[in-house]
Specification:
Nucleotidyltransferase, domain 5; alpha/beta; six-stranded mixed sheet; DNA mismatch repair protein MutS; mismatched DNA binding; 844 residues; 18% strand; 5 domains; MutS, DNA mismatch repair protein, domain I; seven-stranded mixed sheet; DNA-binding; 28 helices; MutS, DNA mismatch repair protein, Chain A, domain 3; binds adenosine-5'-diphosphate
Length: 844
């Protein structure tokens, strides 16, 4: 925008605003529209698929616009694509000269508070990242619900996983210029803002945090939010400090492979959450998702959740409880909107309606036996004072607008009642006036109308104009093609009263609304607590319900490392097909080599195991007749063949990257599930890799592992290694025809049945026959080699290879961009690296 002076004053105003919000699309309010200009218009018109026009503003300027009342849909579309939007509203009344405009709100993917833009059942977190000497510190907050968290000591891989698991769309960075993190943000279209603060801020929200770094990270987020969102954020809750170590580690790949929350096929019914989420409130639904994606490691906490599910099982009062929950609104988000001054009277009405249900809720809860629910019930506050006040004040059908009246009940405020009385009388008076004038003039179709220019007027049709006599005192105001409009003295006097009383009433109602809102703000903290209690109740009730519905059992947690699952089922597959249940009995350090034809059920068996473990550690009952499980510190999987084509990796490469994750991070308390590792390459190197991995796990990691493969040659390993056991999925061959029994048994399968499965897929008969001939020859040829190949002695001394964690540290050092680091940040980085080396030494 070369020379501002060339543009009209309004366009200069736009340019000035845009300078302050260079990286945002400015929504410039013009009457009933938001207009966008210049590049903003070009980008927005493309994303929103709206017409790009131009405006003559001194010079021609590209322009597009959207109606103000429909703006939410457009905002959502832009924000979901990672754009920032600055809403510039008219802040002075229209009059002579240019209306003043100011940015009153900045909406970014992580700073959304409006209903209709947010997904009700999901959190919408924004995060901040700093690097401390213990690793990365991640703080994250949802400004619509007020929830805030902070975790310290994450490695790069862990922070990337956590960001993916939490679905962060926006992060604030302070002192890190980690290129790999940056690449990750770019590939995931995560909005990144670099932002610095001098020191931790003074806020009660961070008071109880443990260390300076953690406080600094939370401060960074708080400071940014307060400054940028332009919202009052008094509803943010004190930061909850999470220790990464208290959660079971699940890589994001595991989330995806197991379809915990989202399905890979876009069919929602193939995700676990679809079947578990029988919650009735958005609060409960969000909590359940967080729970399933954050399995625990602490047996006491897990057992508490089992106990809660147990407590909510009795059937009788459940229907009543469900019907109450069903009527409740999202308290957290209502409170968020009210506290940040984005709420309206409808929000207060919804809050009031929700509060009206609490006494009955307490009553129903008191019918439940058991101490846990009794304790929960004790915590629930009815908020009587708040309820009474809102109940007295608010009309149930309050409108969305807070400036046009219609919110407050009659009888709540004396002056408002008086003003309404005047308005009401005014209307009576107008009706009488109409009758009298019709009689006086003899004009039956004489009308009284109103418009903004003349106020109230009398309208007489053309043919009747001669009937108007001077003594009526009609003053002509406007001539229409088919009539005339008049005013009279008395009409104007009444009009004055009517209009001022309506205006005053609206203003008074607004003031009363603000008073109610401020009053409600006094209860923010206890309403948030109420919301959390309801969320928990809703979640446990839902889990109790699915326990009944799907016949889940309470797992037993053991410390001896044994797995005993009797008649386990896959919680999602069993909802779609008649499921054949299977047992899993596994000793500590045991490695299962699972063979069986394609499509026989190998990966289903492994996923079933993983899902049962995740459910158990999330505190949820599991699909089995009986289950005794150890507590795992992590699950690693390589299941399915999801090509990361967009990321430029082939199936085989993805396979190896994921295998690498497991092999470098797993401990003897982890669970490793590898499905058909090595099949993405030629037979022999695939086989060799698979065997290498199994040996490595057996010798170095000693984690319980399930390894499915169609290389049934691998089953020979069980003869050599103490902890390796063969399993196979049974299948029957009936006259060139396979029957899958989906039953897993001990021992190796006799062959891989590939050709039989191909026959099932109706490959031409000629190919099948020929393949069988070739197979016979190959089997004969390879049998000699096979026996030798798999008993090769380990020649490579694994100890001589640079250990992975040291390699990581070396990589880290190489990647530092020294030009971008301040001396302080360099010291922090150095200390971090030193700590990592110390840790590595300690571990080895
Ligand atoms: P594999 O990994 O051996 O190729 P899958 O685990 O993908 O086979 O299973 C193939 C299909 O067989 C699944 O989609 C499922 O419909 C069915 N299936 C697998 N296991 C069972 C089971 N235990 N009971 C019923 N059907 C099953």
């Amino acid at each position: 925008m070369e020379d501002k002076e060339l543009y009209t004053p309004m366009m200069q105003q736009y340019i000035n605003i845009k300078q302050d919000y260079a990286d945002a699309i400015v929504f410039f309010r013009l009457g009933d529209f938001y207009e966008m200009f210049f590049d903003g218009a070009i980008v927005a018109s493309k994303v929103l698929e709206i017409t790009l026009t131009s405006k003559d503003a001194g010079k021609k300027v590209p322009m597009c616009g959207i109606p103000y009342h429909a703006s939410k849909v457009y905002i959502q579309r832009l924000v979901s694509k990672g754009f920032k939007i600055a809403i510039a509203e008219q802040v002075s009344l229209p009059g002579k000269g240019l209306v003043e405009r100011e940015v009153i709100k900045l909406i970014t993917p992580g700073m959304i508070i409006d209903e209709g833009i947010l997904n009700a059942n999901e959190y919408n977190f924004i995060g901040s990242i700093i690097l401390s000497e213990h690793g990365y510190v991640l703080s994250y907050a949802d400004i619509s619900t007020g929830d805030t968290f902070v975790i310290d000591g994450l490695s790069r891989v862990e922070i990337i996983d956590e960001i993916k698991n939490l679905k962060l769309k926006e992060v604030i960075l302070s002192n890190t210029s980690d290129q790999q993190l940056m690449n990750f943000f770019k590939s995931e279209s995560i909005l990144v803002t670099e932002y610095k603060i001098e020191d931790e801020i003074h806020s009660k929200l961070i008071q109880s945090l443990s260390s300076k770094e953690v406080k600094l990270s939370a401060s960074l987020l708080l400071d940014y939010l307060t400054r940028e969102s332009k919202l009052e954020l008094s509803h943010l809750m004190p930061f909850k400090e999470l220790t990464f170590k208290s959660y079971m580690h699940i890589d994001h790949q595991v989330f995806e492979h197991l379809e915990l929350i989202e399905s890979n096929s876009k069919n929602p019914k193939s995700s676990l959450i679809y079947w578990l989420d029988q919650t009735l409130t958005a609060m409960g639904s969000r909590l359940l998702k967080y729970t399933v994606t954050h399995p625990l490691k602490d047996a006491t906490l897990i057992e508490y959740r089992y106990d809660m599910i147990e407590s909510f099982k009795p059937f009788e009062p459940r229907n009543q409880l469900e019907s109450l929950l069903d009527q409740m609104y999202d308290i957290n988000r209502l409170v968020g909107r009210i506290a940040s001054n984005n709420g309206n009277a409808k929000d207060l009405v919804q809050l009031k309606n929700t509060l009206s249900l609490i006494p009955e809720l307490k009553n129903v809860l008191s019918m439940y036996p058991g101490n846990l629910i009794l304790e929960l019930n004790k915590e629930i506050d009815t908020h009587e004072t708040l309820y009474e006040k809102l109940q007295l004040a608010l009309k149930d059908d309050a409108p969305l607008s807070i400036k046009e009246g219609g919110m407050i009940k009659d009888g709540y405020h004396h002056e408002l009642d008086e003003l309404r009385e005047i308005a009401l009388h005014g209307e009576d008076w107008l009706e009488n006036f109409l009758e009298t004038e019709r009689e006086k003039t003899g004009i039956k179709n004489l009308k009284i109308g109103y418009n903004r220019v003349f106020g109230y007027y009398i309208e007489v049709s053309k043919g009747n104009i001669p009937l108007i006599q001077d003594e009526f005192g009609y003053i002509r105001k406007q001539t229409l093609t088919n009539g005339e409009r008049y005013i009279t003295e008395s009409l104007k006097v009444v009009e004055q009263k009517l209009l001022t009383s309506k205006e005053r009433a609206d203003k008074l109602e607004y003031e009363l609304f603000v008073e109610l809102k401020e009053f409600t703000k006094g209860f923010v903290e206890s309403l948030q607590k109420l919301s959390y209690l309801i969320a928990q109740m809703d979640m446990y009730l839902a889990l109790a319900k699915v326990t009944d519905l799907y016949h889940y059992v309470r797992p037993k947690l053991n410390l001896n490392g044994f797995v005993e699952i009797e008649s386990g089922r896959h919680p999602v597959v069993e909802r779609h097909v008649e499921f054949i249940s299977n047992h899993i009995t596994m000793k500590p350090h045991e490695i299962f080599i699972l063979t069986g034809p394609n499509m026989s059920g190998k990966s289903t068996y492994m996923r079933m195991f993983a899902l049962i473990v995740i459910m158990a550690q999330s505190g949820i009952y599991v699909p089995a007749n009986r289950a005794s499980l150890p507590i795992y510190d992590a699950i690693f999987t390589r299941i399915g063949s999801s090509d990361d084509i967009s990321g430029g990796k082939s199936t085989f490469m993805v396979e190896m990257v994921e295998a690498n994750e497991a092999l470098t991070k797993a401990t003897k308390n982890s669970l490793i599930l590898f499905d058909e590792i090595g099949r993405g390459t030629a037979t022999y190197d695939g086989l060799a890799l698979a065997q290498g991995m199994i040996e490595y796990i057996h010798k170095h990691i000693q984690a319980q592992t399930m390894f499915s493969t169609h290389y049934h040659e691998l089953t020979q390993l069980s003869e050599k290694f103490e902890h390796i056991t063969n399993l196979h999925v049974k299948a029957k061959e009936e006259k060139d025809h396979m029957v899958f029994l989906h039953q897993v048994e001990r021992g190796a399968s006799d062959k891989s049945y590939g050709i039989q499965v191909a026959a099932l897929a109706h490959l031409p008969e000629a190919i099948i026959k020929r393949s069988k001939q070739i197979l016979k020859v190959l089997e004969k040829e390879s049998s000699k080699l096979e026996n030798n190949l798999f008993m090769f002695e380990e020649k490579v001394e694994l100890e001589h290879i640079i250990p992975k964690d040291i390699q990581n540290i070396l990589d880290d050092l190489t990647l530092i961009d020294l030009d971008k680091l301040t001396p302080i940040d360099a010291l922090i980085k150095l200390k971090y690296i030193q700590n990592q080396i110390k840790q590595t030494k300690k571990d080895s």
